[in-house]
Amino acid sequence: MARHWADFQYEIYLNGMTGAVPRLPTDLSRLEELTEQRLGPGPVGYVAGSAGDGSTARANRAALERRRIVPRMLRDVRERDLSVEVLGRSLPAPVALAPVGVLSIMHPGAEPAAARAAAAQGVPFILSSASSTPMEEVAAAMGDAERWFQLYWSKDREVARSFLSRARAAGFSVLVVTLDTPLLAWRPRDLDRAYLPFLHGVGTANYFTDPAFLAGLAKPVQEDPNAAVMHFVNLFSDPGKTWPDLAFLREHWDGPIVLKGVLHPDDARLAADAGMDGVVVSNHGGRQVAGSVAAADALPRVAAAAGDRLAVLFDSGVRSGDDVFKALALGARAVLLGRPYVYGLGLDGQPGVEHVIRCLLAELDLTLALSGHATLATVGPADLEESAG
After folding, report:
1. In a 10 Å sphere around its CB, with 0-12 CB exposed, 13-18 middle and 19+ buried, how is residue 274 labelled?
2. What residues have CB less than 8 Å from 39, skipping those under 6 apart?
3. CB within 8 A of 205, min separation 6: which ones?
4. Which residues contact 58 (CB under 8 A, 6 or more apart)?
5. CA 176 remoteness from chain centre
6. Given the residues 107, 231, 284, 355, the one annotated as active site
């Protein structure tokens, strides 16, 4: 039975009969400003900040806003079905929560709170390697709900192998490998405050609980935390990785593998040639390359290059249900939602994340119907028009 996501609006209106209004805005684009007002500048800057002067983050929004939906009339949209098959999984809607590290800087509930929210709404949660909670604890918080693991590909092969083994054992079913962060970008909001949580041992939980990582330390973490942090910094990522190295991942992971950060059609072809299962068209929300192509502008070319060889997912700039509709029309199979759910977490913990998911999917459901579609299968490039702006 398809879920009626749009019914959330009636729930809100009916609650209003008793004087209750939503604790958070239903326009998700307003969450960033609220978060700026209520949380400390370090954590907010770490989540909201971008590379350079923020031009890529602005381009992400502009690329989505430039595309306008062309609704069609007199089509039967009484019953809608937002479900989708992605990577062999049947999802109730074309959305997953993107991997975002160090969530404890936003709320003490951290990753488990966000993961429980995703599980409660039936959408996949993608756990970051750089989480502030060990992967096993996050898995335990989710029961048997759909969860994927994001890998920052360490210089240390044994640590990478150990992460993959632990993630598999903890029930993470899809591997999402972030390719666009072999180095940290120039991020002025963080630099101006000299704010990097990892240097304080925050966001290192998966490493500090990993036997392969701990084997590389002269003393236990608690006896020499600074040495542990420096060991983490030295092996966190590897700018020397190339396409042939993907064979290592395929050898040590028997589920689907998705490469995150693909913006060029040739990279999609290389991913397919390497036996990968999917790509995420993403510029890391504008956090890695200032002046980069907007993710939504790259999406149609990557989707065309992928053909039916790869599942194409999308993130970077998504703030609303109509953004999700546009990404699907441009060729994405599903969309990863990042900053908005993190703001929801920061403002109201698990209920805040659930609010964000429900708002996004209610708006998507209504956008789909009001544009003349009952299922995602009929959404395509013909439903969009590009404005000159």
Report:
1. middle
2. 106, 346
3. 131, 132, 133, 134
4. 286
5. 10
6. 284
The one-letter amino acid code at 1 reads M
Count of all residues that appear for the chain in the document: 389
Say how far apart CA 93 and CA 162 lie, in whole Å: 32
Query: CB under 8 Å to 348, separation ≥6 — which residues?
Result: 23, 24, 355
Q: Which amino acid is at 68?
A: R
The tens place of each residue's pLDDT in the chain, 389 residues long, gives 678 999 999 999 999 999 999 999 999 999 999 999 999 999 999 999 999 999 999 999 999 999 999 999 999 999 999 999 999 999 999 999 999 999 999 999 999 999 999 999 999 999 999 999 999 999 999 999 999 999 999 999 999 999 999 999 999 999 999 999 999 999 999 999 999 999 999 999 999 999 999 999 999 999 999 999 999 999 999 999 999 999 999 999 999 999 999 999 999 999 999 999 999 999 999 999 999 999 999 999 999 999 999 999 999 999 999 999 999 999 999 999 999 999 999 999 999 999 999 999 999 999 999 999 999 999 999 999 999 76
- What Å distances lie between residue 98 and 27, 118, 119, 128, 341, CA to CA? 19, 11, 14, 8, 9
Residue 235 φ then ψ, to 5°: -115, 0
| 284 catalytic residue (yes or no) | yes
Q: Is the dihedral of CA 198, 201, 204, 210 positive or negative?
A: positive
